[in-house]
Each structure stands twice: as structure tokens, then as C-alpha cells.
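Weekly structure sync, notes
Attendees: PL (lead), two postdocs, one rotation student
Agenda item 3: pending single-chain targets
PL asked that the sequence for the first pending target be pasted directly into the notes so everyone works from the same version. It is reproduced below exactly as submitted, 280 residues in total.
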Amino acid sequence: MNRIKVMINGIPGNVAVVMAKHTLMDERFELIPYSLTGPEITENNYQLDDFSIKLLQPDKRDISIVEIKDKNGFFISIDYTHPSAVNGNAEFYCRHRLPFVMGTTGGDRKLLAGTVAKSSISAVIAPNMAKQIVGFQAMMEWCADAFPGLFTGYSLEIKESHQKGKADTSGTAKALVECFRNMGVNCSENNIIKERDPEIQKKIWGVPEKFLGGHGYHKYRLVSEDETVKFEFSHNINGRDIYVQGTLDAVVFLNQKLEESIHGKVFSMIDVLRNGDETG
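Predicted structure, written out during the meeting:
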């Protein structure tokens, strides 16, 4: 089996580094030793044991990518950068014909999808790469489609807790707001309560201290108008490893679609899950 070449962008960010470590150990993939990074990063290289990754600042990437493509041929990019870089990175990928998996949240998502649709590449874009969370989200979307107005008159409280360094509101929480709205709940993204204080996370949320720097806790609480009925959903993730397998499955899935000459299309993680028997 030919190994799929991947370039992981966002190093030295935590998720990108975890992705790189796992990719190096997975015989299905070959990690290209380059990574797009932010303008604030001053280092030129990042060392993963004996594997050195060259970091490319924004002002150097357009020139460097030509050489990288000439040297490595076809590869798929994995993006775990910063929310502020999402749309600029997508334009870069499309301009240089680099199919990609976008795990970074934030940015203008409609513009993101439109950029790919007008390009000669395809991409997998999702607010969450954890397969089980994506499955839960799919169930809620099915429920919203099958039973519109199910929770009419209910109030909604959404709380999400992530590490202090997460800049934006949880993409998963935003997606669930849309589901509950379609089920009749009068709500918006303004209902989402963000927690980024490590002390509160530890004492109130019960996040283990070793995971304060990397976790994703979500709580959804629906209450009927007369307060006689309550529904609660929650999902808690400690660490970042859960995102790895979903992302790598997305890479395999995207590689298959590209081999089928499918271009200018945005796929979701639900598409990846539905194709699970072929990617697993």
C-alpha cells in the first residue's frame, strides 16, 4: 500500500504536535517535514525526537510551497492552526491546489466552503474531528429534521469549557445551537457560556488538573416553560488524542475521493463516518 503524504500545519500548536506524533507512528502515512506556522513564531524548526520539521512563517510560505510540491509531489494538508488564519489558509490551499482537512474552528465558515467550491480541490471541513462527538451531533441533526418543533417553548442553557488558550467559542456548541433552534428552541450562539478559567474548571467542572491545558467539556440543559421537565446532555473529553483518529480517517477518505477525481467539494466528518467501512 502506498503511504499517503501529509503536511501538518499549526506546529508548534498542541493539537498539531499531537497529530504529528501519531502520524509518524502510523504506517499508512508519510509526514512531510514542513509546517505552516503563525507570524508570532520565531523558531525555524521544531524537533520531534529525531524528526525535524521546518516551520514556515506566512511571509515565506508562497515561495516555499512551490519547492515543497516539486520535491514531494501530491500530499494532503492537515490544518490545526488558529481561528484567525482559517480563511487565509483555505485561500492558500486552494490557490496552490492543496487538498486539505480543516480541523481548526472559527473563521467565516460560509466563505470557507465557498472558497473550496470555486477551486480545483476538495476538502474535509468540520468543527470537531472526534468521531463519537460527530456521531452525537449527527443524531441531534437527525432529530431536528425528523421532529421539528419538538422542544418548542423550552429554554436552553449551553456551557462549554476548554483550555485557557482556546480563542474562540466551541464549534460543536455552535452546531448544537442550530439543531436545538430547528427543534423549536428560541436560542442563539449568545446562549453559549464559555469557561476558560482553570481554577473554576478544576473546582466547579471537575476537570483533572493534568488536563486543564487540553480538554473539551460541554453541557446542554433544556427546561420546559413551566419548569416541570428537564433534559440534560453532556460530553467530556480530556486530552487531544480523540481528535487524531478522526482526522486521519478524514485524510484517508479525502484521498479516496481525490482518486475518484472529485474536485470543488466540501465534505464533512459525517461523510467520513458514513464511509467508515472503507476508511477503517
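Discussion points:
- The chain has a mean pLDDT of 94.
- The chain has two domains: 4-125+241-279, 131-238.
Action: rotation student to compare against the earlier draft before next sync.
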